[in-house]
Here is the input.
Amino acid sequence: MNGVVAFNVLTNDSLTTLILSYQYGVTHDLSRVCRRQRRSLKLSPFAQQKALILSQPDIFRCYMLLKLIEKNDLHHAKELLRQRPNGYLAPPVEASYIYGINNAAHLRDIEIIKFLHENQLAKATKDAMDIAASNGDIEIVQYLHANRKEGCSLIGFILAERYNYTAVIEYLNEHCSRDRNASPSVDPKLLAMNAVAKNMCHIQ
Here is the structure.
């Protein structure tokens, strides 16, 4: 009986291809993306904590996820989470990609935002809620308000009003009225550049 089952599997081309695609733990497509990310990191002259990230699978996996999110590659980010739902550790760096909750808000994907927040894998600024408000993503606005402390800024109010997102406007006015006077956050890319500059000075 077992021999018959094995024969049927091996003679089913589509099933055999699927099984073999997972021989290294992830599909061939995702493995290719992983190798590309690893090669890019190795060649980057300014990458922070490069040796640590490359040597620790949990940290590299999180690095890869955050870089995919930053690059708006929602397909591969979700595929990575599907194939590898566990085993993530945030890289100990100050870089634009570490603000993954901001970047996930751009992707308008609340499940990724929840995953990053609940596993403490990424940072956020007021930009996250501002972006969600500007897109009319009331569910993301509500989640960020209920679970995080960054809040939003005047920008969130202005853009929600400009695009007439009534539900968002009403929610912000009721729950985040103090943030109407808050200034926008500093761009994380500037924070990252400052961190790189400090690191270079330290090396010298």
